[in-house]
Amino acid sequence: QVQLVESGGGLVQAGGSLRLSCAASGRTFSSYAMGWFRQPPGKEREFAAAITWSGGTTYYADSLKGRFTISRDNAKNTVYLQMNSLKPEDTAVYYCAADPTFRTVVTSTPAYWGQGTQVTVSS
Fold it and tell me: What is the pLDDT of residues 66-85, one digit of tens each?
């Protein structure tokens, strides 16, 4: 079992940056692949980024490459999403997710989810 709590969301102007954090409970955090998903207003939830248990491999949605960076600190049981050059279309609720399998995070529905944090980008 993994419990996830996101933080770091807020209101930012276009072109600005935010760093989201996701704190995980449980001693097995380092064995889970992690991901970030987002749900824009009125739209379905979509994949944003994923990282393997070791942090050695990352994967991004094509539209986010070069602007977003996922990372993790297994000693702190935390995964991060650094978001730069933010655009109004990045406005969404951002969710952290965990799964034993990296492929599941990227292509399917991870087993564990946080409650989400709101990111609003003003123009």
Answer: 999 999 999 999 999 999 99
